[in-house]
Amino acid sequence: TAAHIAAVEQARALNAYVLExxxxxxxxxxxxxxxxxxxxxxxxxxxPVGIKDLFATKGVRTTACSRILGNFVPxxxxxVSSQLWRDGAVMLGKLNNDEFAMGSSNETSAFGPVVNPxxxxxxxxxxxxxxxxxxxxxxxxxxxxxxxxxxxSAAAVAAHLCLAATATDTGGSIRQPAAFTGTVGIxxxxxxxxxxxIVAFASSLDQAGPIGKTVRDTAVMLRxxxxxxxxxxxxxxxxxxxxxxxxxxxxxxxxxGIPKEYRLEGLNAEIDALWQQGIDWLxxxxxxxxxxSLPHSKYALPxxxxxxxxxxxxxxxxxxGVRYGLREQGRDIIEMYEKTRAxxxxxxxxxxxxxxxxxxxxxxxxAYYLRAQKVRTLIKRDFEAVYDQGIDAVLTPATPSSAFGxxxxxxxxxxxxxxxxxxxxxxxxxxxxxxxxxAGLDSQGLPLGLQLIGRPFDEETLFSxxxxxx
Length: 470
Ligand code: GLN
Fold this sequence. Notes:
The protein is α/β, with parallel strands linked by helices. It has a domain of about 240 residues: Amidase signature (AS) domain (Amidase signature (AS) enzymes), CATH 3.90.1300. It contains 15 helices and 11 strands. Strands 1-3-2-4-6-5-10-11-9-7-8 form an 11-stranded mixed beta sheet, with helices on both faces. Strand 2, helix 3 and strand 3 form a beta-alpha-beta unit. Helix 9 crosses helix 11 and helix 9 packs across helix 12. It is globular, with a radius of gyration of 21 Å. The site of glutamine has 13 residues, from loops.
């Protein structure tokens, strides 16, 4: 724990942590030592982790990286984080993310962007040498984004500023940053983890999951994070398997679907080659490769960018200056609401609220929201049909590119940023589990990931297959 606290201080220039909680960590670590001395330890005893700032932590500032939450200190703990403490983990601090988890680059955070510890080849320091160099290493050279919205979680794991981190994924926010930082991230099946105490973005899509250095680490983390919670009616009452036991299990005879529609026109040749490499690895491990069709996937991205903002506009109505955090002065309550929301939300969040209220308004509801929900059903049925044919998992690239530069994308056209999610949003729309596993480096020396999509509640197969690729 002490070594990790020092590493976090050294690497402040990465901006991965928005709040460091060293006293908290040392206290938890001491309690952990006592339990271990008595031979009582839990499965995560003494392991230092970071918590995305979207998870409410009792007595510890939680902001969702938005100005509107101000210095909100929750009087309660999210179910997922409380299960980590139950199992012995130690909290190093709260991790940066896109504001309300809306983004793919961590650039929408009210605390500013996170720096990816990876560098393009030739632009001075790389991972490893950089961490020792601390602040100096991070501020030189071309800064790359770590992906988002869980950019702080991914960067912290990649730079060894924690052993693992919690994250959330609404449209790719665990898997895309994992792919950009050479880490492993799994979004479990919708309902696998409790959403209680996690700041809501789009409630029918949001799901918590871990980012870790290896498939095994994420399996161990997920076992502690998952499970039924009576406080979240969408969490499912099913036993949580021993995920670690599925790591290293043979994949012989498993049938892996390769969706032909994902060979997007203009797909980056290096990503295509890596995808082929992944296919070869799985085949060599005894899996059978089958071409499949997911015909409605091409509508997933536009439908997601209707459903997610719609739900967000409803969820974010609660930030009114009365109940939480920031309050601006106004002549009457309406002006107070307006001024608070104008000052408290960033541009991307405002854009989502406007899109959301538009697609939900009477007269447009049928044309946009209802239609997007129908598309969502078709996407789900595509997967059901494939799994009914005996496919165990689907293999795709995790992202259409490797990490890009800070400030490079989306400033003129937000859609350019939304396109990052083309391979990941489908999984949320269908409620399925998906894992991103590092599979190699591109010609710039940057990590690339592959994504495996599983049957509902079959995270175990993803851990087995993921380990073949990593
Ligand atoms: N990038 C997507 C969005 O901006 C997904 C974010 C997420 O998964 N939280 O909505």
